[in-house]
Design brief:
homotetramer, 375 residues, alpha/beta, Rossmann fold, Dihydrodipicolinate Reductase, domain 2, seven-stranded parallel sheet, seven-stranded mixed sheet, 12 helices, 30% helix, globular
């Protein structure tokens, strides 16, 4: 593909914070052109009415998804930043209306006519939870409804880029991980794959900025409720747990049950996870760190910090970076792994673009190398 | 003692945030009169020059401790809010200069003259770490210097009010717990005493506002470094660990080694601890909660929250309250206990006044029943 | 009245931030008992469900105003913290149902029976804007509806305590000033009364914490929108303008038109006003300061700062205090007056209690002398 | 010049927040290569030790300015982010050591040898105040020392890009405006040039995030002092005043004396100015707005907002944008102009790079078109 080609990109659900950060990053991307923005509550509004910080940027207005003229709009990529449980229907409908080639293997008998008709190759990057869980029964249990696109689920690739890079390159549909799973899995997968830590007793104490809660109007997200304050939430019931467990099970080839407790911290962006693990056999914090250094030595976005430097959210703010370090625990036989990401970037929109780059055959880092913003 | 008696109170080290909060609470206390404020760097300044929010309150100027005229100043209570490792020398010197009765048992032979001379009964409430560790070897190890007042240490009572109330009533010298130990111990001691949780594998993930770091000039405490950010610190090395372990050992009658990881959160006040424990035998989160409810049912400042309400720092801001709740962990055989306090009040100045009330024979809640400040 | 008498107090509209701060201050008040809390959306809930920081305090549940059994509930004081434009109807209805003596002069003919029937003397402290504007035409213009209780308006006293103290002592209905007017008027009234500044060209640049916007769900009050950001609002149209102009006109005996521009600042509490004025004749910043010092020299809550100390919101947080100072302007013939208050206390609930104290014949400072909370 | 040429850039004083933001923006710039970073206190450290958010970026270590090997280092551009009053000596010394062509006109007699020796053409962009004031007497008065490079001052161009674009293109030494002057001057210059507002009675009420105070250790910049609080500072004495007055005088061809009051707001970045002006003759807010629209209609970074949308700092965070709007004042004959910038970008490092682009003949927007970061 040509280095200066502009791919036509659409963002479904552009009026939330995730959508806004996608647009921010796409503006800086040299190979994309924002061709479509949808949003139901804000349909008909200019993006700068919804997000005034986009004044001065030439971006399409927000329209209702029902107004999109498929396939005439000729998108190369669709980012789907819709609420959980609505994403699956929208994507299924979209792919059918586009007569997408991903459907071929899913349809047992295909007439010559169908096979010959124009096949779309649009790439779909879903940022919701709808295609993250391989087991649609697990999905139904945690999301309270049956999965409506179980065939499509089988075609979806879990978009944790550093782990599934090769699959993502070939994928038509990528399900981007949640923000909490991203930091947890980057920290733990290399250790479980190498058998350095036990699968029992993995405790994840997570802290997140408020943008993770979205732009919807809830009393608990008002400034006065959150500022100068902090609290845990979703204790023992947060929906990111099954996603983490699924991928840890893949890595360890065993079932894994985790403890996961998220906390809301008075900051806009940023996520920090303090992960308490038990060491296998003669392993030490040093051997864990060596394994992470080895796993990520050539990764552009994952950095294992030197010495005993503690990861901090200010190290990654606004960037696609993840910083990790390993520390001894005072309790013998245990270690502490700490990771920080920006929940909206590596935890959401940035990783989505990282995946898009791979799916389009672009350099993986394209448009994502901006430094964190500190202060 | 008379309900309207005014006890003369001195604060040594009044120019830090702890000192400021002592003054704030003493202003609201009906039975105290602030008779002395000391501070070395700010000696000679009015308190309102050091803390402009005290404009309009009639409070003595800050003087150097060397300028205090003992015993003529006739204090009833001395709060010592000096830095760790300087407190012990100051208190020892003070007690000697006052010919304090606490010294009697510590001095093998006493002449009739000495015994007959005027004995001071001033009460000392130390907010530093200097008298918290019963084992002065442990002190030396964690604080990097030998303890200079080992005899005095034996007379000090650990000032976790709800646990040591009876001893505090009779004490002349009370060593107030650190902020982190206060929340951790209130959560864990009743459970260990009753044998409901295991002593192994107690993991404490703590989060604190920035006032805990004090008013000293360090780059990491600048607004720009902390705001819109968070990070862990002192991982595996924080000096509050031995203090927590000491008291858990007392409660469980066994040695206890804990994991303790504090984090700095962008807020002025507030502390939240998420404590991960293993259940003994057939215990459940419900039996743990029942034990806490029973232990604290008559306590004015410790509140076990109903149902699954999550403790939040905004529930206790500015107050002497502690809120606690117990949650099931997704990992079988484990539970999560969460506690919130205001680090400067129940974690420091408020508990110090609570102890003073007991030492003086006042109602324990005197001057401490103000509601939290939310917003 | 007896020093230890407990007056029965009701708060109508207790589920907002103003209501919460009234409750916080009333808990600390030695002469009040909270006998009633109403709230329509939260009717039937315990206060601690609505404001979890009140856990541990024994306070009545919130009920609907329709459920109140007047006059059986036997209130001595009613605080009305209802939304603008609903307050007038509620108070009018309440007074009629109580057969309140304030109505006597308003009713031309009274039968002997009516005159003899039991007269209520309940004191009403209104925190809304409904009785602040003496001219009900002005009210109608700014609030978009005719005033429904014009007779009652004539009986209302404007509750800027330091200015209208004598009237408030005799009043049955006090209309507490808005937060912005409080700081502006305390700064300007003594200067205009003494003819030290011109009435033209008074510019007030005001900055407020977010609690002033209330607890209602609006996108602009979400944490993420406000944190790490600031902006002006209501430019040239804020409803506190006519109230300020009304009182400045009284003080100067001339019509006054002001410029007033409020800004939202990312903090929970606090209000700062930077007021730009033109000096009369030979007046100087020094003569202005002297006039303020003289006007407030015996005031317990208003403090003119020494030298060139700049007022800051952290000097008054949580307290009923107001700090003011005067500065030379670089433009000759002008001066800058800066004032800071806590918008929820002196700007709302604290001043309301200050007024209540006067109306009940209590010491004006009762329950209000707690020091500001810094940090 | 070639579109893909990499200019070698040095940053003197790279360890402050301004230096950090220069590095952030230069990393995203396609035509620069960071060849030198100096800092005295941090000399010998890696940049990521000083600013851990730069982990993963390949940037030179910080060295002392004395260690720089001029001219061998072959810089094309030097950014000087040194403290006020030290910048002039450093730049003078640097230019002499480089035998810079800018010196030619300043030296009355030049020997043939000197004239023939290699002339440097390095571009110098100074971010300090040292070359902003054309009148070195004014400099001496406000900065408390005589100017040491008065000849060089005459060659410096004031780097307010939108106003002095043509001069900047030809300049060797550009003095970038202060953050406050940038927003004030962009708002006022077109209006004064067109004679739409009076030169008397211009009042600027400014609000800034804390990064403007720099990274030096001062009590007033500690998190706890600033968070949940705000205050004015430098009232009537801030050093940005003469700079604003100088440029307003140029625009209006008259002396101008302004009122300027800055305030510190609890946010990292962002600056908002509320400017109160008097209208000339028949001018109205609408004619002012039309003039600004006309002045900036082709500007890539200055945006006049539609309708009555209020500028907010969140609209520009992290970007080189400036948003402005005009509002009617309630006082007849007056108007209010409000502008917002990011103090570290358009107010400092971003404008510096904008100027560099012009000085090097690059497209002015190169490396500066990233969207603001919201949330």
């Amino acid at each position: 593909m040509l280095a200066d080609r502009k791919y036509r990109v659409g963002v479904l659900g552009a009026s939330g914070y995730t959508g806004a950060d996608l647009v921010r990053l796409l503006i800086a991307h040299p190979n994309t052109e924002i061709a479509l923005l949808t949003g139901e509550r804000k349909a008909g509004m200019s993006l700068k009415s919804v997000f005034p910080h986009f004044v001065g940027y030439d971006i399409p207005d927000i329209i209702s998804i029902d107004e999109v003229e498929w396939p005439a709009i000729e998108l190369d990529v669709v980012f789907c930043a819709l609420p959980h449980a609505t994403s699956q229907d929208v994507i299924k409908g979209l792919l059918h209306s586009l007569n997408h080639s991903i459907l071929d293997e899913m349809i047992v008998t295909t007439t010559a006519d169908q096979a010959n008709s124009l096949r779309s190759e649009v790439k779909v990057v879903d940022l919701s939870a709808d295609f993250r869980l391989r087991d649609t029964e697990t999905y139904a249990k945690w999301y309270g409804k049956a999965h409506d696109a179980t065939d499509l689920q089988k075609k979806a690739v879990y978009g944790l880029t550093e782990i599934y890079r090769d699959d993502i390159k070939k994928a038509d549909l990528v399900a981007c991980p949640g923000c909490y799973p991203t930091a947890a899995l980057l920290s733990l997968i290399p250790l479980l794959k190498a058998g350095l830590i036990k699968t029992e007793d993995i405790l994840i104490d997570a802290k997140s900025g408020v943008s993770g809660a979205g732009r919807s109007l809830k009393e608990q997200n008002l400034f006065v409720e959150v500022s100068e304050a902090m609290h845990p939430y979703g204790i023992g019931s947060h929906r990111h747990m099954p996603e983490i467990e699924q991928e840890l099970a893949v890595a360890s080839k065993n079932d894994v049950t985790i403890s996961f407790t998220p906390h809301l911290v008075p900051m806009n962006r940023g996520e920090l996870e303090t992960i308490y693990v038990k060491l296998e056999g003669n392993e030490t914090p040093e051997t864990l760190k060596a394994a992470l250094l080895s796993a990520y030595e050539n990764e552009p976005f994952v950095h294992i910090l030197e010495g005993s430097i503690a990861p901090a959210t200010r190290m990654v703010r606004g960037s696609n970076n993840c910083v990790i370090n390993v520390f001894p625990d005072r309790i013998p036989g245990r270690a502490i792994i700490i990771a920080a990401i920006d929940n909206l970037v590596k935890g959401s929109s940035g990783q989505a673009i990282q995946n898009m780059n791979l799916m389009l055959g672009l350099e993986e880092t394209t448009g994502l190398m901006q430094a964190p913003m500190f202060p």
